[in-house]
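[Discussion] Sanity-checking designs against the backbone

I'm trying to build intuition for which residues belong where. Below is a C-alpha cell string of 339 positions. I'd appreciate it if someone posts a full sequence so I can compare it with mine line by line.
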C-alpha cells in the first residue's frame, strides 16, 4: 500500500477571500476530512518575499491572518494528519531548492506561462521571483515519501493558475529520477470545479490588492455593502429588460455558493427573459454569502485564543522530519558527500 501525501500552499501576502475558498480551500478541507492523506498546508512566507521583500511587517501579519483564515474555514491542525507548515522554518527546503535549481533549465523556466503573465505586471522582478517556479518544486517534494513504494501519491490541490507549475514539478521529478535514481513520486495536480472567481467589479479575478474582494473575515454588514455595490449587467437597466446571467458576477457567486442550484437556474432563466431586478438578486446573494460565512465567523471566534505559534511550530517540525530522508537521498545521488 502506497502512502498518500498532500502538499499545497499559499503565499502569505494578506488575508484570504472567497476566491481562495472556491479555488483552493474548499478542496483542501474535503481532502483533510476524507482523512486518507497526510496533509501539509504551507504558509509560503519565503515565496511572499519574492514580491514583497520591502514589506516585512505585512508579511508577519499575513502569516497570522492566513493561519486564522485556515482555522476559520475548518482546516484542523489538531488532527494527527494535518500540519500547518511555515515555509521559512524548514531549512532543509532551501537545500532541496538549491539542488533542483541545478537540473532546472533557464530556457524552460522563462517559458512558464504563469510566470510570463506575472512578469509583465512586475517591474524590477527579483531573482527570487524568476526562480520561484523551481523553488516551489522543493516545497512539494520535501515531503515526498521516501524510500518510494508502489502506489505512493503526492497530491497538490491548487487553483488552475498553478497547473503549469505542477506540470513542471512533474518534469523535474522525472528528470531527477532518470539522471540520478528513484527518489521522487511525480506530483498530481487537483483543480476544483470552480477554479476561479471574478471580483465584485466583474473584472479579472478576485484579489485583495485590486480592492474587488469579499474577505472570509468580512462582517455581515461589510458583505451586504459590498454585494449591493456589485457590478451586474450594464445593459439590464430596468427590471423588465432581459439580462445577461452568464457574465454576471452575481450569478457566478450564486452558482458557487447557493445551496439551491435549481432555484438559481430558474432565476437565471427569468433574468434572461427580463423581470428580475438586480436588487432582489443581490439580496439573495447577501443572504447566501452570510449564511456561508456565519459558521466561519463562529469558528474564528472560537480560535481567538489558540496558540498559533505552537500550531506552526509543530507543523513545520513534521515537515522537517519528513524531509530528512529525502534530502539525504538527494545528497547521496548527487555525490554531495564526504569522499
Ligand atoms: N504559488 C502558490 C500561490 O501563489 C503558493 C505555493 C507555494 C504553492 N508553494 C507551493 C502551491 C507548493 C502549491 C504547492 O498561491
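Best answer:
Here's mine. Compare freely.
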Amino acid at each position: 500500500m502506497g502512502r498518500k501525501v498532500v502538499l499545497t500552499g499559499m503565499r502569505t501576502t494578506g488575508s484570504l477571500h472567497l476566491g481562495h475558498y472556491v479555488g483552493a480551500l474548499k478542496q483542501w478541507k474535503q481532502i483533510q476530512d476524507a482523512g486518507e492523506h497526510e496533509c501539509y498546508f504551507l504558509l509560503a512566507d519565503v515565496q511572499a518575499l519574492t514580491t514583497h521583500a520591502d514589506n516585512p511587517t505585512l508579511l508577519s501579519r499575513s502569516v497570522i491572518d492566513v493561519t486564522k483564515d485556515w482555522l476559520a474555514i475548518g482546516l484542523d491542525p489538531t488532527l494527527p494528519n494535518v500540519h500547518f507548515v511555515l515555509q521559512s522554518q524548514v531549512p532543509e527546503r532551501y537545500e532541496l531548492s538549491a539542488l533542483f535549481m541545478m537540473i532546472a533549465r533557464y530556457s524552460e523556466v522563462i517559458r512558464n506561462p504563469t510566470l510570463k503573465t506575472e512578469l509583465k505586471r512586475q517591474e524590477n522582478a527579483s531573482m527570487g521571483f524568476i526562480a520561484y517556479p523551481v523553488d516551489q518544486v522543493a516545497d512539494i517534494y520535501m515531503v515526498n515519501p521516501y524510500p518510494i513504494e508502489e502506489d505512493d501519491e503526492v497530491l497538490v490541490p491548487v487553483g488552475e493558475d498553478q497547473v503549469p507549475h505542477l506540470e513542471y514539478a512533474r518534469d523535474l521529478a522525472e528528470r531527477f529520477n532518470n539522471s540520478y535514481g528513484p527518489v521522487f513520486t511525480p506530483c498530481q495536480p487537483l483543480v476544483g470545479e470552480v477554479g476561479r472567481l471574478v471580483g465584485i467589479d466583474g473584472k479579472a479575478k478576485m484579489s485583495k490588492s485590486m480592492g474587488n474582494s469579499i474577505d472570509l473575515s468580512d462582517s455581515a454588514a461589510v458583505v451586504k455593502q459590498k454585494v449591493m455595490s456589485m457590478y451586474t449587467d450594464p445593459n439590464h437597466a430596468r427590471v423588465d429588460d432581459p439580462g445577461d446571467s452568464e457574465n454576471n458576477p452575481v450569478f457566478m457567486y450564486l452558482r458557487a455558493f447557493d445551496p439551491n442550484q435549481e432555484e438559481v437556474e430558474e432565476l437565471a432563466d427569468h433574468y434572461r427573459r427580463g423581470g428580475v431586478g438586480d436588487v432582489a438578486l443581490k439580496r439573495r446573494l447577501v443572504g447566501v454569502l452570510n449564511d456561508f460565512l456565519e459558521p466561519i465567523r463562529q469558528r474564528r471566534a472560537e480560535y481567538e485564543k489558540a496558540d498559533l505559534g505552537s500550531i506552526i511550530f509543530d507543523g513545520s517540525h513534521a515537515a522537517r522530519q519528513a524531509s530528512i530522508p529525502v534530502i539525504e537521498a538527494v545528497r547521496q545521488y548527487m555525490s554531495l558527500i564526504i569522499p
